[in-house]
Design brief:
alpha+beta
Length: 230
C-alpha cells in the first residue's frame, strides 16, 4: 500500500477553512481535526515563519496522485511556502483495517489496491484507531487482548462524517477519540484484528483503524528486554 498516505496539515486555526476548501476541491472529504498550541521556541518559530498561537492539526488520507495535485494547490493557491501559512506533509501507510473503511477514507480518489507493504527494516508500526467519543477504553481493552501494551488518546473532530451512513451503512458521530499505539510489526495484525472485531464499525465505538510504518524508536528498550526474558 505504498501509494497511500496520511496527509498531516498544521496551520493557524483562522486559516483552516481555506485548507479545507482546497481539499474538498480535490475530493478529500474524510479526515480528523484536532486543536493544539504551538510549543516551539521563538527562534524556531521565527526560522519557520510560524506564530506561537492556536493551531489546527488535520489528518486526511490521500493517494500519490491526489497529493501531487494538492501540493500544487497548496503552493499556488494558498501560498503555503510563505512564512506563517502552515505546513503539510505525508506519511506512507502500511495497512487499513477493512475494504469498506479504505473506500470511505479515500472516497472520490482513484486508487488501485496493491499488496500490503512494509518499509525495509521496520520493526515497529504506529497503529491509529479513530473511534467515537467516549469509547477509548473499549478500543484499548480490545487492543490489549490483541497484544498491545498501552496507548495515547487525543480528542478530535471528524470531518466528512455525514457521508458515513450512506457509504458504510453506519452512523458515525463527529466527536472523535484518536488512539495511538506503537507495536512490533509482527503484532500489528493481531492488534488491528482485535480492535476491528470488538470495537469496529459495527459496534458503538465505530472504530476505523490503520497503521503507519515507524522507522526508528526510543523508549521501548525496557519493554523489549522484558519480552525477551519472559
Amino acid at each position: 500500500m505504498s501509494e497511500l498516505y496520511m496527509m498531516v496539515t498544521i496551520t493557524n486555526r483562522k486559516y483552516m477553512s481555506r485548507f479545507a476548501a482546497l481539499y474538498r476541491e480535490n475530493q478529500i472529504e474524510v479526515g480528523t481535526v484536532s486543536l493544539g498550541m504551538g510549543t516551539a521556541s521563538s527562534f524556531i518559530l521565527d526560522y519557520m515563519g510560524l506564530e506561537d498561537d492556536e493551531k489546527s492539526i488535520c489528518f486526511h488520507f490521500v493517494t500519490a496522485a491526489t497529493w501531487k495535485k494538492v501540493k500544487k494547490g497548496l503552493q499556488n493557491q494558498l501560498r503555503i511556502d510563505v512564512p506563517g501559512t502552515g505546513i503539510a506533509f505525508t506519511i506512507p501507510m502500511s495497512s487499513i483495517g477493512g475494504k469498506r473503511e479504505l473506500g470511505f477514507l479515500i472516497q472520490g480518489q482513484e486508487f488501485v489496491r496493491e499488496e500490503e507493504g512494509t518499509l525495509k527494516e521496520t520493526k515497529h508500526e504506529l497503529i491509529v484507531a479513530i473511534a467515537n467519543y467516549g469509547y477509548n477504553t473499549q478500543v484499548m481493552k480490545a487492543a490489549e487482548e490483541g497484544g498491545a501494551t498501552g496507548g495515547t488518546v487525543l480528542h478530535g473532530k471528524g470531518v466528512g462524517m455525514k457521508r458515513a451512513e450512506q457509504f458504510l451503512g453506519v452512523s458515525l458521530v463527529s466527536e472523535k477519540e484518536v488512539i495511538f499505539i506503537v507495536a512490533k510489526s509482527e503484532q500489528k495484525n493481531a492488534i488491528m484484528s482485535a480492535i476491528m472485531e470488538k470495537a469496529g464499525l459495527t459496534s458503538k465505538a465505530g472504530t476505523i483503524v490503520f497503521s503507519l510504518p515507524v522507522t526508528s524508536t526510543a523508549g521501548l528498550r525496557i519493554l523489549e528486554d522484558e519480552e525477551e526474558n519472559s
